Amino acid sequence: VQLNAVKPGSLFEQIGIQSGDTITQFNGIQITSPEESQQLMRELSEAKQFNVVVQAADGSQRTLTYELEE
Q1: C-alpha torsion sign, points 9, 10, 11, 14
Q2: What pairs with residue 52 in β-bridges?
Q3: pTM over the 0.85 mark
Q4: Burial of 55 per CB tally in 10 Å (0-12, 13-18, 19+)
């Protein structure tokens, strides 16, 4: 899932995702199809904790972790 316009203040920006990054894994699950990307977006909006692997436009990869503070 490539993100082209990360909004300031959004969850994506808060965890360190930048415009142009591609999410390749969500909680250890490889994202390879449009159906999986739709499920990813639903789960991201509902999850209290998750790990994502993102690939930057330059090809570098990084793992980002998010945990909702209660």
Answers
A1: negative
A2: 26, 64
A3: no
A4: middle
